[in-house]
Design brief:
- The protein is an alpha/beta fold.
- The protein folds into two domains: 1-30 and 200-222, no CATH class; 33-186 and 223-296, Alpha/Beta hydrolase fold, catalytic domain (Rossmann fold, 3-Layer(aba) Sandwich), CATH 3.40.50.
- The chain is built from eleven helices and ten strands.
- The protein has an eight-stranded mixed β-sheet with strand order 1-4-6-5-7-8-9-10, sandwiched between helices. Strands 2-3 form a two-stranded antiparallel ribbon.
- It is globular and about 75 Å long.
């Protein structure tokens, strides 16, 4: 074997190893524990008066036997209104604490849970919305079985949780509305965007997606929120910070425009807000606009 062939093979091997490392960082990321996320939330002054809230542990065993850990935060135990909040990538249910006042303002109880592989849950691969949306659909079914078919049930999510909330509509869950905050439109374009920020060539991106599909059984191309919500008749609110450099703000516009309903959708930008920071940038506006959206749609 000539030296040139050895060099070429070494380069090819390095490229594949690099692509596999990138895939693993997405699918098996370094995740924060519940305690770590609590410390972060407190440091960012988002813990607020959570310790004084009426909370109750509420876990669900999914259809595949996987245990999901969560907390019901009661605003009014007599209320039949509920929000299921889904947190972002690498974080935990505590990421939803800052949104409690928003939904309490409309007399909703809020369920916070840890995504699969996150928080208190058993570690494993992260599906970037693929597996998580199936889990949420399962949680919704069990949630209604527990609290009654007559409840009003809305979904709220942040980042990965927002994308998950939208993609869950693929399974036609029985929910009344969705409020997404800083969702990406689809995993493929989000990954391409992130890799372009690192100045990686397009062939590397294609290889990462191929490895994720063949080695880790992730079919990200089948989970495009734009296609899933285009024929939905549910009220959907799209929230994004126009200073978001992690999930670009144009993705909110693409999602909004893909949704074919005319009257019960709303697109709301928060000026200067960074990723997952819209509520913190202007909490009064967040509460006011979300409350108005819920009320306008009769919930």
């Amino acid at each position: 074997m000539t030296v040139s062939i050895i060099i070429v093979l070494a380069i090819v091997a390095c490229v594949f190893i690099t692509a596999d490392v990138i895939s693993r960082k997405v699918i098996f990321p370094h995740l924060r524990t519940l305690q770590m996320s609590e410390d972060i939330v407190k440091d960012e002054d988002e813990w607020r008066d959570y310790d004084k809230k009426d909370t109750e542990e509420l876990n669900f065993t999914l259809s595949d036997g996987y245990l999901i850990h969560g907390t019901m935060v009661w605003n009014d135990r007599s209320s039949k209104k509920f929000i299921i909040h889904t947190h972002g990538f690498r974080f935990t249910r505590y990421g939803g604490i800052k949104y409690l006042n928003t939904f309490f303002n409309s007399n909703y109880n809020v369920y916070l849970y840890d995504l699969r592989s996150h928080g208190e849950n058993e570690r494993g691969p992260v599906g970037m919305g693929e597996t998580e949306s199936k889990d949420l659909s399962d949680i919704i079914k069990q949630f209604r079985a527990k609290f009654g078919d007559d409840i009003t049930l809305g979904l709220h999510g942040e980042s990965l949780g927002a994308f998950t909330s939208l993609v869950t509509l693929k399974y036609e869950p029985k929910v009344d509305f969705v409020i997404e905050d800083c969702a990406y439109s689809d995993t493929i374009h989000e990954l391409k965007y992130q890799m372009s920020r690192q100045h990686m060539p397009s062939f590397m991106f294609n290889l990462v997606v191929w490895i994720a599909r063949t080695k880790y059984k992730m079919h990200w191309e089948d989970y495009d929120a734009k296609d899933i919500i285009k024929d939905s008749e549910l009220p959907i609110m799209f929230i994004h910070g126009d200073g978001d450099m992690f999930t670009p703000s144009w993705m909110a516009s693409s999602l909004y425009n893909a949704c074919n309903i005319k009257y019960n959708k709303k697109l709301l930008y928060f000026e200067g807000a960074k990723h997952a920071n819209s509520e913190k940038s202007n909490p009064n506006k967040y509460i006011r606009e979300v409350t108005a959206f819920i009320k306008t749609n009769g919930f």
